[in-house]
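Morning. Coffee machine broken again, so started the prediction first thing and wrote up yesterday's gels while waiting. Chain of 211 residues, entered below exactly as on the submission form.
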Amino acid sequence: MKQAMKLSLAIGILIFGGCTQGPKYIDNTNIDKTKPATLGLDYIDFERASMKLVDSMIKSPYLNNLYKEKIHKTNQPLVLMISDFINDTTQRIDIDQLVKKIRIELLSSGKFVTTTAVRASGAEDKATMDLRKLRKNDEFDQKTIAKKGTVIAPDLSLSGKIIQRVSKLANGDQRVDYYIQMSLTNVTSGLAVWEGEEVISKEGSGKTAPW
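Came back before lunch.
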């Protein structure tokens, strides 16, 4: 009797193990044909939005003129700082995930560099200022410490907001729209030199929570 139970258990484990799929890679190279896996925002949504927003930004005639003017005067690209990003959704969104993709694409264009020494919520990388506190410290070779007046101020500030709107459909399903909005401001004049918006819309069961 015990042997029969052991045999049945062993067969059950083999069957269960055979039916269970192991982990696999997801192909993100063809995101336009990828079906949404969730009503919330995911990696594919961030990837799609970032590529479209960057494409719009780089093609902006005003920004191209600003870039040419900066190159002519200093032979340096435009310096970008990250300002406030507001999450007006029911999700806990890592805003830096979206912003990082934007920054990577802008850096790859050759027209922008991002400062990490200043940000609306405080320095992203405190090392720039912390290292300057070593001035007059006898333990350090003062020739290797950055001098005063060497930190580069930004030319532009990038801010944004993510808005979520949920609508009930006649068939009982729900539609969720996400508006990813961004503004690029010339910090010298305070004028917005570029603005962009990407709308991500999804439809699913009315019983599914959009997060």
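The two ends are 50 Å apart (CA to CA). Going to sketch it on the whiteboard this afternoon.
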